[in-house]
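$ fold --in a.seq
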Amino acid sequence: MGLVNGLPAHVLLVHFVVVLVPLTALALTVGAIWPSAARRMGVVLPLLALVTLASVPLATGAGEWLEEHVGDNALVRRHAELGDGLLPWALGLFALSALVWWAARRTAPAGPAASDGTRWSALPVRAAAVVLSLVVAAGAVVDVYRIGDSGAKAAWHDGFSKTATGQDADDR
């Protein structure tokens, strides 16, 4: 994907990633910790994660096109390397969101005195899902931050003056 309305598509598509990854991470974490929240979110949780997952290769593909159309430098290469690492995090968000959604659908709320013991026997599995969700959510958000920071540095390292210039500077 190249240009959209005269702008590199990457510059537009990254905004989906920057918004959707943290939003999905938050929804996953809330759903994993509070199954009632996962039940309320319903199928929206895995669908949000699926859209997030789809947005990552779109943004990286557009980024690869852009990389071929800008000057070669270490900052751009670093940003591209970091960007290539986001897909596994997005896949993890999707897989865990689907698991949390599925588990919330399958388990009705049971009181602590449930006679069949299903609430307590599922506790280790639920605890593992919570821990995995927290790790993947945090990893995805940190990775998006690192990628965005490196992209901003690559785009703006020589693109502005540290002192005001032009007519507006005279008005101050």
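$ fold --in b.seq
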Amino acid sequence: MPDLSDIIYWLKVLYFVCQASILVPVVAGLLWRRRLPRNLRILVTCCLMWLLLMGFSEYARLAWHNNNGVNELISILEFWFIGAAYYHTLQFSWQRYFPLIGTVFTGLALFDFFVLSHLWQAITQTLIFNDTYTTLLKHILIIGLVLLYFEQILLELRSTSLWQDAMFVVSVGFLLFYSSTITLFLTSHLIPGPELRLAYAGLSVVNLGLHLLLTRAFWLASRPGRALG
């Protein structure tokens, strides 16, 4: 049987490969950006944000043994970028309230970070930080946006395959990733250590799938005459 240290090593390799795969949609998105509609251009910027800040987060973890502040910034920006993409995609009359929802989310997140979860103490004293409430709220809101999009396309008459629709491809990726993440987040305390490592490795593969689906979406949207949801 393989040694436990070897398994841990290869799980780490898998994690970094899956994280580094964000380069694929970033390069594709920047290459085709001028041909993309506004909602997909926003997601290209989101991918670029993920690349830069996750890279800095990893540097902060290795150099300062503390990347708490960077990760919480990613959490807030991620919600705003994805929310903006769906703001320019959904066609419900009440979507004008999306900026207000984003502002309320940001306020609640900051309250959670600095009052409930003591982010500043975690940064200054290099403590483990858990933003439970913000993580749950962000995932629920993003999954809600995806479900609203699915409702919208169900109400429309489509003459083409949904898998040829860039925003549908994106939404499938988001639904898989955020539903998997929130499930693992809620059940991680019930999973023993070795199995938990495998669970996070599985989540890394889901993250890779999201990056590949984003790349496909950018390619679909860049093709002449391609209609989007």
